[in-house]
Amino acid sequence: MGEAPQPRFYRPFARQYDGGLSALLIETGTDPASMVPAVRETLLGMGQNIRVYAVQPLSTYIDQSLTGVRWMAMVLSSFGLFALLLAAIGLYGVIAYRVSLRTQEIGVRMALGADRGIIFREVLAYGLAVAGVVIGEVLAIPATRALASLQAGIRPGTASTHAAAAVIWVAVALVACYVPASRAAGVDPMEALRHE
To answer: What gap in Å lies between CA 156 and CA 144, rounded to an integer?
Structure first.
């Protein structure tokens, strides 16, 4: 795993074995894990100079070789989720602060007959920042293409990937803005007018 593809030459093991370190790949139609004792016994029975270090199914070997990659993916995913959480907390703080600054204005509007649903939607729309999400996703396309040209193995994101990222950002913004928006919609006009 992780090696560049290169040509391989396969030959019968029993006739050509010269005592060096070898790796064997055995194809079986049965459960590979059940074949481990039989393979070990067969190899040990081929001669006194043969030592068997590890006999395991190929799936186990591949899982072990991917451990480092999985660990890095888990760490990077954790950092991404942490950044998303920080962005949600920051957005919540900005919207809550903006609502607190506009408490009197909201109270006046409600006293003049503004509907609570309109206030709620207005605060929610301010926090969604859909334009920012669209701009970010549009700029992400050339950025991933540039990275893909610099580093092998990085593929540019598909349209569905960018759409999923945009949906996640909008969902996080909705969750972050819901409490300040409902607080703004629940403002008592008389209390808001007395608010300093």
So the answer is: 5
Residue type (1 letter), 181: A
Alpha-carbon span 71 to 186, nearest angstrom = 46
Q: Mention every residue, 6+ apart, whose C-beta is less than 8 A from residue 182.
A: 120
**Length of the chain in terms of residues written:** 196
Averaged over 76-99, what is the pLDDT? 91
State the Cα angle at 162 between 157 and 165, rounded to 5°: 125
Percent share of the chain, pLDDT over 70: 86
For residue 67, give both structure tokens.
Answer: 């451990």
pLDDT at position 83, please? Answer: 92
The DSSP call for residue 156 is: P
Measured from the Cβ of residue 40, the count of other Cβ atoms closer than 10 Å reads 13
More confident residue, 143 or 21: 143
Can you list the alpha helix ranges (DSSP code H) found in the chain?
13-16, 32-44, 58-65, 67-101, 103-111, 116-128, 130-150, 159-185, 189-194
Q: Which long-range contacts (CB under 8 A, 24 or more apart) does 116-121 make?
A: 116/185, 116/186, 117/185, 119/181, 119/184, 119/185, 119/187, 120/181, 120/182, 120/184, 120/185, 121/181
Q: Does pTM top 0.90 for this prediction?
A: no
Per-residue pLDDT reduced to its tens digit, 154-187: 777 788 888 888 888 888 888 888 888 888 888 7
User: What's at 171, amino acid-wise?
Assistant: A
